[in-house]
């Protein structure tokens, strides 16, 4: 038996010696993996920043360069089970690296550029339900500062409000500072955002 298309065998519904003319199922299913759909789950608040045609990077592993593609479709509804919006991209797969049901990481580029300060994600803490970082005030003094985090990716957080470029923040040990602050808060936490 010869397949009319090239690809990867998905299922075989017959056994050796079985007649294939009388089966209701196809004898063999073959997937053409030269292009595959990559489906990203995106928070509804962030989905509004995306547009069809926008750039997507698909990361298969940390030691491989990402595959570049474009966003093909942004679903109009929210998935009930995950509470996410599905974003679909048709990705060219010349080396057949991507396979059905494979988990990958994606990076979706927004329509608008966002400016801010990039800090280690470990620097972000939560006080009274708000994101904050601990800023160095002097050699041995650190104060919490409310911040707005636009996004996080690969261990970094993009802070768009509440922090200026060049200000030193605590990343390692910020949880300890948070614990100490909760035991004896200082009024500097309410410092106005810049």
Automatic annotation (TrEMBL):
Residues 117-178 form the CzcB-like C-terminal circularly permuted SH3-like domain. One of its GO terms (cellular component) is membrane. The keyword Transport applies. InterPro entries: Beta-barrel_RND_2 (IPR058792), CzcB_C (IPR058649), MFP_Cation_Efflux (IPR051909), RND_pump_MFP (IPR006143). This is RND efflux pump membrane fusion protein barrel-sandwich domain-containing protein. Belongs to the membrane fusion protein (MFP) (TC 8.A.1) family. Keywords: Transport. NCBIfam families: RND_mfp. It comes from Gluconobacter cerinus. Residues 35-110 form the CusB-like beta-barrel domain. GO terms for molecular function: transmembrane transporter activity.
């Amino acid at each position: 038996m010869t397949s009319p298309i090239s690809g990867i065998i998905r299922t075989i519904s017959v056994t050796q010696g079985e007649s294939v003319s009388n089966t209701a199922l196809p004898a063999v299913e073959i997937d053409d993996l030269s292009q595959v759909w990559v489906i990203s789950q995106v928070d509804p608040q962030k989905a509004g920043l995306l547009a069809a045609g926008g750039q997507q990077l698909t990361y298969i592993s940390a030691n491989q360069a990402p595959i570049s593609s474009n966003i093909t479709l942004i679903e109009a509804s929210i998935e009930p089970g995950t509470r996410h919006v599905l974003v679909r991209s048709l990705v060219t797969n010349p080396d057949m690296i991507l396979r059905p049901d494979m988990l990958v990481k994606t990076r979706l580029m927004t329509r608008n550029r966002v400016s801010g300060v990039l800090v280690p994600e470990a620097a972000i803490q939560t006080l009274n339900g708000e994101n904050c970082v601990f800023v160095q005030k002097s050699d041995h003094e650190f104060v919490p500062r409310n911040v707005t985090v636009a996004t996080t990716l690969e261990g970094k957080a993009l802070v768009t409000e509440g922090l200026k470029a060049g200000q030193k923040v605590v990343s390692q040990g910020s949880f300890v500072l948070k614990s100490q602050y909760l035991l004896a808060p200082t009024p500097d936490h309410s410092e106005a955002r810049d």
